[in-house]
Amino acid sequence: MKQRILSGAILAFFFAAIVVFNQSFPLALNIVVALISVAAVVELLKALGLARKWFLAGPAMLTAAAVPFCDQDVGFLVYCVFTLLVFSAMIVYHEETTFKEVGVLYSMVVLIPSALQTLVFLRGLSNNHGMFYVLIAVLSAWVADIGAYFAGTFFGKHKLCPTISPKKTVEGLIGGIVVDIVVMLLCGMFFSYVYYQGKIGPNYLVLFLIGLFGSILSVLGDLSFSIIKRSCHIKDFGQVIPGHGGILDRFDSVIFTAPFVYLLVGFFPLVGA
Fold this sequence. Notes:
The chain is mainly α. 74% of the residues lie in helices and 3% in strands. It has nine helices and two strands. It has a two-stranded antiparallel ribbon with strand order 1-2. The protein is globular.
């Protein structure tokens, strides 16, 4: 548990550094998202035993690195090129690879970078408050994980999905939802009364919805990647982050939560001014 808390604190300071450099070096967020995307794809390649198949690994890593720097139109073009390269490689090297390998890799390279890219798009929704949006999107996923972990540890009795993730409990899910909602509202109060001395206030209803549905989507993301590991006979994606596992183990919930926050805040602004 101590290792988990320490690793979580390191990740929090990591994103705090992005906030500090947001004005002086805006590309910091794009670079970090690209690095996370590439690291996640590399973990997947190793777990699937595809790391040495350069004709699949090369296009996958290049696509993961490029997407966070692209707008939506250019990103679509990048994925078109990736599609041509990967399926051409499958035809040329059909004796060395299978459609299952290509299918899993292709779907993950589409899902992971494009979902994490919404963090960059979130920042673009507001010149003044974009990084607040980004932090809320990441925190809504991580806080739900932390809340569910501690609630399940101390109060968990009823298994949520025992065949998929034996450690998850109904009590953990409820605890994660409650903690996430409370922390989102507290973040709004901190943002308003500490950062802006009460001059600017967030939409607390939107923060409530982010806490509620963000926590549910966080669990959905975690369970989805657990099924992926099970169906592909993967035990762990990696051990890059002590106490948390690999990059994918830490960002699987963000992959599902960030697009939701982006869509919600796009329709209902989190900050009025």
